[in-house]
Design brief:
It is built from twelve helices and eleven strands. By secondary structure, the chain is α/β, with parallel strands linked by helices. 34% of the residues lie in helices and 17% in strands. The chain is globular, with a radius of gyration of 19 Å. The chain has an eleven-stranded mixed beta sheet with strand order 1-3-2-4-6-5-10-11-9-7-8, with helices on both faces. Helix 4 runs antiparallel to helix 11.
Length: 377
């Protein structure tokens, strides 16, 4: 089995939750390689990223840095240089990307919490593939100092865990004054999206009282998100193409990204504003939107390796990077050997209420798994 870890560590209080950190987040004294051979000779980080310092200050025990899809610019988690983590929930299937190792480490029980980054679904997609919980916070809520690339209008650092209690513990560490309110009554809206019919049925069964709702801009928001991530990733990493050390899949995407022009970027920004307004209006009628995390079940590794592109697997997550709304994925057993993700989307800045909704649905779907606190009490 391929390891979820680039490097094993032991930093912080060994009595606290075991925390794994994606390889695009600085840890003092270790190289931040972003899963790329092109960055294998960079100098070790001189200090911890803000989020690493925060989880350590909260009592976390850092156990390692995790493998990722190269340069956080891919969705399968396949990395022929750094290694592809095994998917503990669906063996033989992709772990999802780009926070592949973070999801796999949590799913395998090698970490209680993992920090990932989500620019186009990169926390929620691997969490859904590996049968765990993943949260993309509201854009800008969690500090990105010491996270690569340094500049992004889409990227968020967020937690992955097996229980909502551990997600909430991490958010309390990362955000001063983070609070999960009581939720005696929540209004849910089920967003109608293009997906496998079994996944649509899963949403209906999980939240039967949800009000049917429609977005007119999901598809164009997905396209706009792709344009912006391409332009920003090329600005950050395009120079690495000259090294000849970037993997073939990511090199091809970077070459394509170089062709995103100013007109496409301006159009994408207009879509960003319009889509955000549309989702804000839907969230005036309900508290939480619900939809599948992925439009289909994770493919097998051999099929993903042969596929020219699986980026469309992010069609239901990427739009909410564009809009900046907080989004949470919860695992649902969808059949023998099949796991799926139920995605919840909340209002800007209401991450605490989103977590309250997640905790409620976690209890409704199944008996929650023990958090590190329960196990170590």
């Amino acid at each position: 089995m391929n390891s979820a870890f680039v490097e094993r560590l032991s930093i912080g209080d060994v009595r606290g939750p075991r925390v794994a950190v994606k390889d695009c987040i600085d840890v003092a004294g270790t190289r931040t390689g972003c899963g790329s051979r092109a960055l294998a000779e960079t100098e070790p980080a001189s200090g911890h990223a803000r989020v690493v310092r925060q989880v350590l200050d909260a009592g976390g025990h850092l156990v390692g840095k995790t493998v990722m899809h190269e340069l956080a610019f891919g969705v399968t988690g396949i990395n022929h240089w750094a290694g592809t983590p095994a998917n503990p929930a669906m063996p033989g299937h992709i772990p999802g990307g780009s926070s592949s190792g973070s999801a796999a480490a949590v799913a395998a029980g090698e970490a209680d919490v993992a920090l990932g980054t989500d620019t186009g679904g990169s926390i929620r997609m691997p969490a859904a593939c590996c049968g765990i919980i993943g949260l993309k916070p509201s854009f800008g809520l969690v500090g990105r100092q010491g996270v690569h690339p340094a500049a992004s209008s889409l990227d968020c650092v967020g937690p992955m865990a097996r229980t909502m209690d551990d997600i909430i513990w991490t958010m309390e560490a990362l955000v001063d004054g983070f609070h999960v309110p009581p939720s005696p009554h929540l209004r849910f809206g089920a967003l109608d999206v293009d997906c496998d019919s079994r996944l649509a049925s899963m949403v209906a069964a999980a939240v039967p009282a949800a009000i049917p709702m429609t977005s007119q801009r999901m598809a164009e928001a997905y396209d706009a998100g792709l344009s912006i991530i391409s332009r920003e990733t090329f600005a950050a990493f395009g120079h690495l193409l000259a090294t000849g050390r970037v993997g073939a899949d990511v090199a091809a995407r970077l070459a394509d990204a170089a062709r995103v022009d100013d007109w496409q970027l301006a159009r994408a920004e207009a879509v960003r504003a319009a889509f955000r307004t549309e989702i804000d209006r839907l969230l005036q009628r309900v508290d939480i939107l619900v939809l599948p995390t992925l439009p289909a079940f994770p493919p097998r590794l051999e099929l993903a390796a042969r596929a020219k592109a699986l980026v469309t697997m992010t069609s239901l997550v990427r739009p909410f990077n564009l809009s900046g709304h907080p989004a949470l994925t919860l695992p649902v057993v969808a059949g023998p050997g099949l796991v799926a993700g139920l995605q919840l989307v909340g209002r800007h800045g209401e991450d605490g209420l989103l977590c309250a909704a997640g905790r409620r649905i976690e209890h409704a779907l199944a008996t929650p798994r023990s958090s590190w606190r329960g196990e170590n009490a």
